[in-house]
Write a structure and sequence with these properties.
alpha/beta, 3-stranded parallel beta sheet, 2 helices, globular, about 20% strand, about 90 residues
Length: about 90
């Protein structure tokens, strides 16, 4: 089963422990999802993650055409809408 990790916040100046954790997550994952193009850059430049392992995925992504949407609610709710919200303690 592939492991895909969704990274919400990428630290620009990590301490050695923080860098190690992201590098280990990268090593153990088949794919990393970055929420911004800047996050993708940081993963490659600071954490040495190969670019082909990182996919840009915006925080919210609708998968049905806007023509099928009415006031933000999918008519009939037969096709899914992907929404990614950060987990909070």
């Amino acid at each position: 089963m592939p492991v895909i990790c969704n990274l919400h916040t990428i630290i620009k100046e990590p301490d050695p422990g923080q860098a190690f954790i992201i590098q280990e997550i990268s090593r153990l994952s088949d794919r990393l999802l970055a929420m911004s193009h800047k996050a993708r850059e940081l993963l490659m430049d600071i954490y040495n993650v190969p670019g082909d392992k990182i996919t840009f995925k915006p925080l919210k992504m609708d998968i049905c055409p806007s023509s099928e949407m009415q006031d933000g609610i999918h008519e009939g709710a037969k096709r899914p809408i992907l929404i990614n919200n950060p987990l909070r303690p």
